[in-house]
Amino acid sequence: MGEQVTVIGAGLAGSECAWQLARRGVSVTLCEMKPHKRTPAHHTDDFAELVCSNSLRSDQLENAVGLLKEEMRRLGSLILACADETRVEAGGALAVDRHGFARLVTERLRGHPNVTVVDGEVTELPTEGTVVVTTGPLTSDALADAIVRKLGGDGSTLHFFDAAAPLVTFESVDMSSAWFASRYDRGTADYVNCPLTEEEYLAFWEALTTAEEAPVHGFEDKNVFEGCMPVEVMARRGRETLCYGPLKPRGLKDPRTGREPYAVVQLRRDNRDGSVYNLVGFQTHLRFPEQKRVFSMIPALRNAEFVRYGVMHRNTYLDSPRKLDRYYRLMAEPRISFAGQMTGVEGYVESAASGLLVGVELARRLAGKPPVDFPQETAIGALALYVSNGSVTDFQPMNINFGIIPPLGYRVRGKRNKNAELSRRSLELIDALRGEAASDLVG
């Protein structure tokens, strides 16, 4: 194609964007600050590192994120292809071996002839050329300051905090106090369920709400994004709050008693070998010794070996409805696009989806072709139109959900059936777009 694009950041969005551009003949310079510089949340030098959960959430078409995944698969997503190849059992969810997944993404990109990887921190936005910024929630201070200056220094770059859950070895879990099952016995029995009696739960809750937190500059409970809330912050909202959140026992009958326990902590496989599990919903910023002390109060984890403790880090996103168009381009300077969580899409899959859209549209624009406007009836289009919707006043990060997709216009009985019908309509539109755009859309 003879064109060249600089993609800054090799996370999920940047990796997907670079791949979509490269497979369409665009030369990509992919800039990544690792291994020269890492944030506290980074543990490897690979691209597309999953710094929180290893789950990409539901893979069912009755769930909006399941629809989004299927749209991406049909559009040739690198992230979904690598996730499917490295998946680990997690019931109806798509979970991956986090290290195998990141290595595979890295190998595919480094091996593509149209991708040139440049290691090192980018501290300024390029003054010319086509640029895609995909540095996400862990954008370095220098580049974040440069983005604020580009946006006029008016405070349009906002901050909140994100948290990761601890990991434990499976062999250290006391399986005499736990059992394998999925909620309501749906799918395969992929989760380790760690029950607590009422007395055990109340002691745990008391310890959790009074445990010492690690210092995080600027942290306040009210600044935490609801979608990735530290477990101790959730616990402080009420004694029973956790029992309706990550510790809910519904649909989990203890085979030893035949009854639902008072509370249940679930562990999900974190690697393909099943040697490491993460504490589902246990994002935290407690001090490391406090995590060991408090989480070991869970009977099945009394002797748990923690191979990674939870961490808290800053998350950064834009006032996108005032700054970006439906193609994630900066309205004031369209040569610059953004993708990933910095735009206000929330979640691994959503971040990759925004990178896919930017890559597809940018390749077409550079080839002098009209854009493919993903309609709001598709999950990919609904996300882009939400992020760029100027009528949204109090803009907050958003996961994909059926609420931002237009209704069917006719009645379907039952929520699952309605969602399945919404997904059917969306996928028909995706397939129609692929037919119209031919190889331009599928790469």
Q: Can you give me a brief rundown of this structure?
A:
With 443 residues, the protein is α/β, with parallel strands linked by helices.
Order of the strands making up the biggest sheet: 10-11-12-13-9-14
Subunit arrangement of the protein = single chain
Count of separate DSSP helical elements? 13
Beta fraction of the residues? 15-25%
Q: What pattern of helices and strands is seen along the backbone?
A: EHEEHHEEHEEHEEEEHHEEHEEHEHHHH
Indicate the CATH topology of the largest domain.
FAD/NAD(P)-binding domain
Instruction: Report how far the terminal alpha carbons are from each other.
Output: 13 Å
- Structural class per helix/strand content? alpha/beta
Uncertain stretches: none
What is the helix fraction of residues, given as a range? 25-40%
Taken together, the total number of domains comes to 2
Task: Report the CATH architecture of the largest domain.
Answer: 3-Layer(bba) Sandwich
Shape: globular
Number of E-state strands: 16
The CATH class of the largest domain is: Alpha Beta
Mean of residue pLDDT values: 89
What kind of sheet is the major sheet? 6 strands, antiparallel
The CATH fourth-level homologous superfamily of the largest domain: FAD/NAD(P)-binding domain
Structure description:
This protein is of the alpha/beta class and 443 residues long. The protein folds into 2 domains: 285 residues, FAD/NAD(P)-binding domain; 144 residues, Elongation Factor Tu (Ef-tu), domain 3, CATH 2.40.30. The strands form 4 sheets. A 6-stranded antiparallel β-sheet has the order 10-11-12-13-9-14. A 5-stranded parallel β-sheet has the order 6-2-1-7-16, with helices on one face. Helix 2 packs parallel to helix 10. The radius of gyration is 22 Å and the shape is globular.
